[in-house]
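Record format v2
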Amino acid sequence: MFDRRLVMNFDWVLLLTVVALAGLGILNLYSATASWHAATPIYLKQALWLGGGLGIALTICLFDYRHLEYLAVHVYLVSSALLVIVMVMGKTSMGATRWIDLGVFNLQPSEVVKIAVVLLFAKIFAETAHPSGFGLGELWKPALWLAVPVLLILKQPDLGTAVMVVAVAGSMLFFAGLKRGTILILVVLGLLTMVAGWFGLHDYQRARVMTFLNPEADPLGSGYHIIQSKIAVGSGGFLGKGFLQGTQSQLSFLPERHTDFAFSVFAEEWGFAGGLFLLSGYIFLIVWGLYVARRAADRFGLFLAVGVTAMIFWHIVVNLGMVIGLLPVVGVPLPLFSYGGTSMVTTMIGVGLLMNVSMRRFKF
Amino acid sequence: MVLDIKWAELPIVRKRFLISSAFVGLVFLLLLLRLWYLQVVNYDEFLERSVRNRTRVLSLEAPRGPVYDRNGQLLVDNRPSFQISVMRQDIENRELLFTRLAEILDVDVEELEKRWNAGKGFPIYRPVPLATDVSWDIMEKIQEQGGDLPGVLTEVRPIRDYLDQGISAHLIGYLGEITEDELGQEEFSGYRAGDFVGKTALERSYEEYLRGTKGTRLVEVDVKGKLLRQLQMDPPRPGNRVYLTIDENLQRAADEAFGDESGAAVAIDVHSGDVLAMVSRPTFNPALFVTGIGSDQWTELALNKRHPLQNKVVAGQYPPGSTFKMIVALAALRDGMITAGKTVDCEGDFTIGEARYRCWKKDGHGETDLKKALRESCDVWFYQVGLELGIDKLSAAAKELGLGGVVGYPLPGERGGVIPSQEWKRQRFNKPWYAGETVIASIGQGFVLATPLQLAVMTAAIANRGTVLKPRVIDRVEDWEGNLLVEPGVEVVRQVDYPEKAWDVVQEGMVAVVNEPHGTGRAAELEDVLVAGKSGTSQVVRRKSDEEEEEEEDDNETPYRLRPHALFVAYAPADNPEIAVAVVVEHGQSGGRAAGPVAKAIIESYMAGKKSSEEQVGNN
């Protein structure tokens, strides 16, 4: 029943890269929360999440990913249903309704949606993609599939995740191919959406964008996060202040330093050299993901790998862009690095899918 | 399925992999460039901002400079005091905490609330003082219960320690918390709310020398401003040392000689103008002010009928009475209007028109010359001489000798007294001068007013034959390395020219006052040293506001407020003068009997001090 080739083809490189990055993340969390006195330290919890996540990833490897092609629609429907449940009876925190209280932990359906969209679009594109690329007429169906969860997420509101889902779907669409005219129309449509969206944004979201454009205008208010993060990163210098020595993070000037701004802590303590090292790790992970996609046994596997890789990539880019002041603060975690069970589990499901595609690249 | 393999191998799909890889590389390059920009290009700026973020400068109070007497005896020092403060960031339940503290400190919760509110504007890392200068017992209780009193801390603060029990309080002055007005002034630019500053006298005028330099502590704080640890400390430097011209021994002698009486006494060196003693009675305890005086205590001091807060040596203006007579004699002698042998027949009164002016001795002094007139303080002699001389000549002579205007006391609060003239009266009251006013001015009554300090300067000028000296109170200010910062020199206000004969006669008269039978100043006589002096007993002008309470007093006696002031001026040794003294005992009734002994005590102490220091020199 168990094919020996699966073990032989197991993607150790991917596993090691992921564990190394997550390990660095846990080390960084140890420093970021050194002054906290919790019964279970954050870094230990994160280690447990990592362990659980690895378990999930390996479990996913056990069965052939091709079975998922038939399950994709069901997963999509279930996750969309969860989004509706959130809207009806979700848990509200800080002005946003994003969670379902399951007692043991809070489930964030918008995270599940990311995986669901990757699966669904992998299935759709695997079935319908053709070398000449999609025309506008062929796109209305996938657009509809996408619109439902994205609108539900925007309603929560969670702009960051919504943008993320669109970005992931868009990346996969790029690999499926588009006709030139269609690209042009989509760009125009996108711009129009952005202009219209500006007026549909919540005040706090608009404030974040304004703050991003000029953070010094309100240094103690909405600009505080960005300014403190930039001070942390900038004062790290080339070699950093040293492990546990970052004053910005150790003295709590840096907000959200164990979640969204975990990279700022790392950059402060390890400097440009540390940042270069970490980013190299992430580049390798992304490139490896694309490599897995390119060698995938079938089109579904290819799109699945592209989707997962795009998901991880966009999270990294948006998070880093945010903490170093290149993008507005949208509350997107850094995969494997920021503390958070949901983020870890979502990422590890993606990693599991990647490994699955990677180890089953040979036909038999 | 064969199609699938072909998909990845399609040139267009391969191109997409290439484009996306390039895109990923480009995006990461952009991120790295941004990191380079923040961490390498702008490193200095962000590093500085991170340092500013986490550090605060706290100031440490400097002990004020000590004050010594002329012999180096410490008069005012500092002692460590315990202050109970709260660190607001560490308080868990303020209501409970204040209830507990109020019990330990034995004060009302309201009092604590008041202090708490006063510190509301302080930065969060600066403790708010709740009780100052608490006892050891309270300290120990607080220490024991430390765990139950979160946020409470005990600080050691230097505060003023008055070693002379306030005898020199009027000279040294007191401290008080800086006011909002003062905080706005340039002079107080380095100060902040809650600081104590000199409010009066020396403490006020020499604030810049006494204040010292605050120390600083560079501390690390977290995002809430919570103090974490000390990074650097620059200890405070105490204020400079002030040496007064005062001799503490004379000061004590003068103070003791007063007994329970009110008034003022001052002694100056006749060559330098050094003020050797100056006491104003009753005094107050300046220690009351070091922790902030309560309003009850303040009201009591401010409304006290005997004016304990006033420095009577420089601000008390009294009719000089017969101590003024030397001036009349000197002016008449210089004018050539009389000679030393001038005699007047005193029958007990003097009449101009219908007005009759009595001599203090009802039966009269009979045939009286200048020496006798001074010795026995014959009023009629001076009535007649003064009237003949005229008020303007009299006034000029008095002003020359230091009356009728401030003599230049180096600290604030000096008043100038009054020496009337025709011009003065015209300007002041727009009325002509009457001859009768000259008569009573001749015995230092009427409009004439002088401060004890002026009388001492006058007496010194008589003793040294015409040198009017500016009183010196601050001998020098030194820093802790012994460098001289301030040293006011001896200043001669003016040299007054009188014939030697005039000095001789007046000085002889003053010696007779103390040493000859019938002299009015026998109470000041000393065995070892020849003292020259003059008594004065001056009428107190009745004020309307005083009338009510007079009725409550004993009918058999003259009410306290109406009793005449007792004055005495003296110098010694008469043959080679060194010290001049002026004493006013308020409502002391008799200059000779009430004020004379105080003058005597001061001179006695001076001579004793001189003797013992000469012996020491001899022994060495």
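The two ends of chain A are 14 Å apart (CA to CA).
Chain A has a mean pLDDT of 88.
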